[in-house]
């Protein structure tokens, strides 16, 4: 049964000698209740420590520390990558670091490219934000947030089923502990030091 301020107070008052008045409102009662409040706070903190010390109930950074003893670490979110096709005037340049966008999702151009005689050029891009929001479909990257001279249009290249290489979100606490007591389960859901995470 969980401790409460009332139950703690009653236990403390039970230890006071009978010659002292312990009814509510007396000095003795107030002193013991003040102590009970602090005990209640301490019990709450101890319960938090207990929960955060076990893989089956820990969360956040506490869970990361628990599984770190096994050489396992949370997978971080990754950045979606892909290629764009830019249309414009022959000889126009798309500088490295330029921005393109799919709605409000921004991508950065990773290499300087020059528009060829056919009026197009292809350039690699990486999403500015880690996570799955950068996993956009063909044609979704379709605008320059800032106008670049000589460039008319931009679109996502259709070179593979997913026009941007899939990014992932960071592992949640629940996905890190498919089985609280099995290290093998952690190996399936988290990365070992020095290994390639997928």
Task: Write a compact overview of the structure shown.
The protein contains 5 helices and 10 strands; from the N terminus they run αααβββββββββααβ. With 198 residues, it is an alpha+beta fold. Strands 2, 4, 5, 7, 8 and 9 form a 6-stranded antiparallel beta sheet that branches. A two-stranded antiparallel ribbon has the order 1-10.
**Helix count?**
5
Quaternary class: single chain
Radius of gyration: 30 Å
Helix fraction bin: 25-40%
The counted number of beta strands is: 10
Biggest beta sheet summary: 6 strands, antiparallel
Q: How big a fraction of the residues is strand? A: 15-25%
Spatial separation of the terminal alpha carbons = 44 Å
By secondary-structure content and strand pairing, the structural class works out as: alpha+beta
| Average pLDDT for all residues | 81
What's the overall geometry?
A: rod-shaped
The poorly predicted ranges are 158-162, 178-198
